Amino acid sequence: MSETSPKLRAELEGIPTYKPGKPAAPGGPVAYKLSSNENPYPPLPGVLESVSAAVASFNRYPDMACTGLVNEIAERFGVPASHVATGTGSVGVAQQLVQSTAGPGDEVIYAWRSFEAYPIITRISGATPVQVPLTQGDVHDLDAMADAITERTRLIFVCNPNNPTGTVVKRAELERFLDRVPADVLVVLDEAYREFIRDPEVPDGCELYRERPNVCVLRTFSKAYGLAGLRVGFAIAHEPVAAALRKTAVPFGVSQLAQEAAIASLRAEDELFGRVGSLVCERTRVLEGLRAQGWTVPETQANFVWLRLGERTVDFAAACEQAGVVIRPFPGEGVRVTIGETEANDILLKAAEGFRKDM
User: Fold this and answer.
1) Is the pLDDT of residue 158 over 60?
2) According to the model, what pLDDT value does residue 28 have?
3) For position 10, what pLDDT does the model report?
4) Which residues contact 80 (CB under 8 A, 6 or more apart)?
5) Which residues, listed in sequence order, are joined to residue 109 by a DSSP beta bridge?
6) Residue 41: its pLDDT value, please?
7) Residue percentage of the chain with pLDDT more than 70
8) What is the rounded distance in angstroms from the CA atom of residue 145 to the CA atom of residue 298?
C-alpha cells in the first residue's frame, strides 16, 4: 500500500481551524456556557410549532431559493427580494462573499482582532488577508483601513459591533470611510449583533446600503433570534452582489426547518425585542460591575463584554471555569464573555472579583 497521500492545496497548511466556544464538560464544575455568544432564551413563540410541522417532510429537499424566508426578510427590511441572499449562518454568507470577490493575488481587509473566521475564509479562497490593528480603545481604525486599500483590494469587512470587543464605529466616521473606498471594492457591514445596539450614533447598515451599491449588509438568526443550532444567515446587497451570492451558495444549504424557524422568529419580534432588552439590562449590570471592581472594559454594544488581560488571559478563563462558567479566551490577548442568564452573570462577577483580589 502506497504511503503517498492525495495532493492537497498548500494554502491549507497555514489556515487555522475555527475554534468554537468551549462547551461545559460533562460532570465538571461548569454550570453555564458563556463562550459562544448564544442567546440563553429558548426559541421564540411559534418557532417550535413551525419546526415541528416541517419535520414530517424532511425526507424532501428544502426550497433551495428560500422563497418564503427571502420574501419575509424583504418585507421586514423594506428591500427588493432580489437584494436578499441566504446562507448557512452569517459566516456561510461571508464565505460566499469572499468566494464571489477575491481569489489568488487579491486582498481582503479587516480589523484585527475581529471575527476569527475572516482570515480563514480569506485564505481558503486563495486571497491575501490584510489585518489592520484596532485602536488603543479596541475600535476599528477606519483611517488606517482606508490607507491599506490598494489596487488589489477586493473586499473589506467592517464588523459592527466588533466581535470579540463589542465596540462600534459610528455614523460620521463610517460614512467618511465609505467615501474613501473605491466604488469597485465591496464593503461588508457585518452586523451579527445589530439587535443589541442602543447607541443612536451607530447607523443601521441597511440605511447605508440603499445609496451605495458597493455596500453589503450581513445579518444572522443565530444571536438575538436564538437559532444558532439551525444555521441561517442572510445578506442584503444590490442585485449584482446578491446574484453572486446565490451562485456561490451551497445547494440546499439552508434546511427547511431553518427556513420555517427563521420566518416564525421574524413574526415574533415583539417578544424578541423584550428578550433583547432584558439582555441589554444584564449587559449594563455586568459592565458596571466589572468596572466597579477596577477592570478596564470597553463600552460594548453586543451581547458580550471584552477584558484585555494579556498574559493573564488563560489563568482568568481557568478561574471562571472553576467557579462554574466557561468563557472564551484568546491567549495572550483577552477574554470574551457572553451575557447569559442572571445566575451565570453573577458567577462571572464573583469569579472576576476573586481573581482581581489575587492579582
Assistant:
1) yes
2) 61
3) 77
4) 74, 239
5) 130, 156
6) 95
7) 96
8) 21
List Cβ<8 Å contacts ≥24 apart for 311-319: 312/359, 315/355, 316/352, 316/355, 319/351, 319/354, 319/355
Strand duo 153-159 + 107-112: pairing: parallel
pTM of the model: 0.94
- The per-residue pLDDT for range 300-342, each reduced to its tens digit, is 999 999 999 999 999 999 999 999 999 999 999 999 999 999 9
Contacts of 184 (CB under 8 A, 6+ apart): 214
Split at pLDDT 50, 70, 90, the class of 13 is confident
Residue 39's pLDDT is what?
A: 95
C-alpha distances in angstroms, 38 versus 20, 32, 70?
11, 11, 24
pLDDT digits (tens, 9 = 90+) for 103-141: 999 999 999 999 999 999 999 999 999 999 999 999 999
Tell me, letter by letter, the H, E, C secondary structure of the chain.
CCCCCCCCCHHHHHCCCCCCCCCCCCCCCCCEECCCCCCCCCCCCCHHHHHHHHHCCCCCCCCCCCHHHHHHHHHHHCCCHHHEEEECHHHHHHHHHHHHHCCCCCEEEEEECCCCHHHHHHHHCCCEEEEEECCCCCCCCHHHHHHCCCCCEEEEEEECCCCCCCCCCCHHHHHHHHHHCCCCCEEEEECCCHHHCCCCCCCCHHHHHHHCCCEEEEEECCCCCCCHHHCCEEEECCHHHHHHHHHHCCCCCCCHHHHHHHHHHHCCHHHHHHHHHHHHHHHHHHHHHHHHCCCCCCCCCCCEEEEECHHHHHHHHHHHHHHCEECEEECCCEEEEECCCHHHHHHHHHHHHHHHHCC
The distance from CA 332 to its chain's CA centroid, rounded to whole angstroms, is 22
**What is the distance between the alpha carbons of residues 328 and 37, in angstroms, rounded to a whole number?**
9
